[in-house]
Amino acid sequence: MRDLARAIDAAGKVTIFAGAGVRHARDEVLALAEKIGAPVGHSLRGKEWIQYDNPFDVGMSGLLGYGACDDAIHDADLLLLLGTDFPYDQFLPDDVRTAQVDIEPARMGRRTRLDLAVVGDVGETLRLLTPQVEAARSTKFVDHMRKKHEKALGGVVGAYTRDVEHETAIHPEFVADQLDQVAGDDAVFTVDTGMCNVWAARYLSPNGRRRVIGSFLHGSMANALPHANGAAFAARAAGSDRQVVALAGDGGLSMLMGELITARHYDLPVTVVLFNNATLGMVRLEMLVDGLPSFGTDSPDVDYAAVAAALGIPSRRVTDPADVRRALEEALAQPGPALVDVVTDPRALSIPPNITAGQVRGFAAALTKEVLGGGMGEAVSMARSNLRNVPRP
């Protein structure tokens, strides 16, 4: 503990990266951040516990990430990993001194370099650590990262949530942002693996009462609706009328469509918001990054609202962005299951906060192959769909 305190005191710039292990240590993390002037980034599983009402928040890292978290991690003199087993080592620095606090010894140092390790509960550790560290003499680093974060939120993250009510095709970012605004303050959101993870990570606002549940450890597809049905059963057993909302992709829903029958049979108050782009968006993105044109990722254009209606579930298919908010409000007001089938832009991509040279080369190679293969129109359409979403210095 003393070694960690000395390392923090010796570092001019400290960044905290928090995971799910800070669930019961929120106050302790913020107290340490305030004392040492540290920006606080987080993983997806840590987001709901540490982001809200956090004056030191700089967002998420990773392909799903946003904000200034990546800059804060790489520009630090010391990176302090708290309760996180963040697996995407390509987004973690190998040239920044790193300390890790975790209750599980097997997680120590298995993702990135490790200079200092403290095995223990995050809350208990920080209660002992914080009194031992010196107060920061300057808040220049955290202030700079906060400004970067605010700029990023107004750029990449906010690109398709403003002035888009009359633009077609519907951008999924707009749908997620509208859902965030109309859903309940204690809603339970379940999210499909893939692009729905991205939209949930960037646009659903935690507040200490909301939950976001997904297959975050396993990455299993088609999890949103089964998770939502389970959450609705649990809420019913507890005598709660808590909203349960499934952010589902058409790929995931098509795999376990029978779960719609379950929701209808038990009259579960589950609202399914379907991001229907008739493609496996995350797979498509991964192929583009690796320099491969999309192949085998498209699926049939299915009217899932009609499928739900055939099962007796109130449903609506939305193709006009001006209708999105009303459709969501009406679905959330239903006493039982409901489905909103939103036809979204299949070319919309999740652009990470920092694009590497390798990713640029991959995109360029993939688009070149698209053009040489006769897909000039597809390449132009993809550029148009994402031009506003490209990070700018």
From TrEMBL:
Annotated Thiamine pyrophosphate enzyme TPP-binding domain residues: 192-342
Domain Thiamine pyrophosphate enzyme central: 2-128
Signal peptide: none
InterPro entries, sorted: DHS-like_NAD/FAD-binding_dom, POXB-like, THDP-binding, Thiamin_PyroP_enz_cen_dom, TPP_enzyme_TPP-bd, TPP_POXB-like
Homology family: Belongs to the TPP enzyme family.
Annotated protein name in UniProt: Pyruvate dehydrogenase (Quinone)
